[in-house]
Fold this protein.
Amino acid sequence: MKKYDYLIVGAGLFSAVFANEAKKHGKKCLVIEKRNHIGGNIYCENIEGITVHKYGAHIFHTSSQRVWDYVNEYCEFNNFINSPVCKFKGEVYNLPFNMNTFAKMFGVSTPGEAKRIIEEQKKEICGEPKNLEEQAISLVGREIYEKLIKGYTEKQWGRDCQDLPAFIIKRLPVRYTYDNNYFNDRFQGIPVNGYNELIEKLFDGVEIRTGTDFFESREDLLALSDKCLFTGMIDEYFDYSLGKLDYRSLRFETETLDEENFQGVAVMNFSEREIPYTRIIEHKHFEFGKQEKTVITKEYPAEWQMGDEPYYPVNDERNNKLYKQYENLAQKEKKVIFGGRLGLYKYYDMDKCIEAALRICDKEF
Ligand code: FAD
Ligand code: UDP
């Protein structure tokens, strides 16, 4: 007799949804997590009464009624709308690319004037855009590409924009209205009591061992259950037998400042190559905080090396091809379900991650 129905590797959002659904269906799970806390990358810490997003800014947004209803069962969301700004050589521009950006960049005021300039600039791209550079120019023209996209993207991904897939930039809306909302989704907000509440409630009543790495006692752990959900790195699961997948890593530098309001906005991006970080987060603005002090985090992108946190999969051609080969191996592992950003090697936002987890649960339970 196995002791558990499921061994769950990783205590991030994907696992939390899976564990919650398993619990509802009377399944017994053991969760193991190598970090010393649960929540994966949405984990928050409290500093000076401010909820600090320890692994980078996390804004919840979705167009799925099912996902929105699901998360609202466990926590209340505030009415935060992400409206970041991008700084380039001392000038600030609104994001995403919209009439406020075009007005400042081109000195225009109507959509017709902005369109004419962008249409003219994008003439240099013929046919379907083949990479991120071509995609960006065909969306917003060369000037915005060079000032607000090229430097940011090349810092973020450590690769030339000509070597990056077009889809990365298609995530950003381009609008001919004066609307600074970074997302197009119907629902948006930040949990009023932070993301930890959501995670804790989803995992409520489930046995969890933190500080436990799957690879340190893989066989013993697998022997405990009938099935396993694995949300770690898929290439590591297969001992890198087909080669290593690339990831992008990040370094976060967090400081508490003796002032009330440092930058006046939750997220400020820096698109100059010479500035080594991509953005500064001022956490209190996510929750309209009025504390005397403020906490800011600078986000420095880094190439991933063994032992670093793998924050982003790099979904370029080489890596997608290699992932497909790992996926073939994964399909042969009948006892193991692969999930999450790392197990599926996908650039998932939280809502997509929840959707994917619920889809697997629909099949499993
Ligand atoms: P993770 O959160 O990575 O959880 C996986 C867990 O598995 C980790 O805790 C890890 O320690 C553990 N683990 C791995 N290997 C092992 C092992 N061998 N043994 C034991 N445990 C292991 N989404 C949004 O919707 N909005 C945003 O604004 C947003 N901003 C983001 C900003 C950044 C900087 C990053 C990196 C992501 C952002 N996301 C955002 C995406 C969001 O973080 C993910 O969708 C979500 O956290 C994915 O959850 P997960 O469970 O798949 O992965
Ligand atoms: N991007 C950019 N300039 C910016 C913000 C974003 O060029 O000021 C590009 C960049 O390539 C980035 C992509 O748009 O990787 C997607 O941005 P998003 O904010 O969605 O990225 P995330 O931080 O969520 O990975």
